[in-house]
Structures are given as C-alpha cells and as structure tokens.
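ok so I'm stuck.
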Amino acid sequence: MLVIPDAQCQAILTDLLTTTGPFNTIKVHLFQNNNTPTRQSVLSDFTEATFDGYTAIAPAGGVVAEDPVLGPFIQWPLAPFLSGGTITTPNTIYGYYVTDSGSATLYWAELFASPVNVATPLFPVPVLPTFGLVTQPPA
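replied:
not stuck anymore, here's the structure
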C-alpha cells in the first residue's frame, strides 16, 4: 500500500499551486447530466450547465490545509454560481467538475449529495472546490 507522509503530501499539493503548477489556474464547471464520476471519467462525460446567468468560475487563492483524519488537501474560495434574473432555461445540477483554465483537461469531479434544481431567478449554487491526496484508509 502506498503511503505518503503528510509533510510530503503538503509539499506535493503546494507544488500543484505554484505559478507553473497545473492547479494555479483552474476552472470550476457545473454539470447537468446524471453522471457519477469515476476514475475513468473523461471531460465528454459531463454536460455543462446552461441555465440563464451560468458561467464557469476561475477561483483564485487555493490554499493547502490539513484534515486531522484525511490528511492534507487544497481548498479554494467558495465558487458562488448564481442564476440570472430571468430563467428561460432551467437545469438540474448534479455536481461540479474542475478543468484547466482552457477547459480542455479534466482534473476531477464531484457528485452532489442531492441534485440542485435551478429554476428560479437569482438561485445560488455554492461550490467549495477541494482536492486532496488520500494514500491510505483513515485509521
């Protein structure tokens, strides 16, 4: 079983956030198809949201933090998706996925615990993008 000490996980995650690291500029997208992400997921598995007012978000300022059970992780500021003032194209949102800044490479995806129905004006869909390294089951 692969085990990476927490200090090295923190170093790896910090490297991902450097100015030349792939997570320096990410883009967070919402998906509207009922798709459960897997290790084999590819970008084309996800149908991007189309509700009025939607646009993918490029959060800045990811920081490395520590969970006492799961270990180190990166967390970005809350990505506050908000529907437009008028809704002509409602969506059911099943989760979010994260890509590079050009939306060409899928980095990871997460299914929401419950789908979110975006059908009313100015409806918020908050997403807290998080990425971690788990090298062994929690003790």
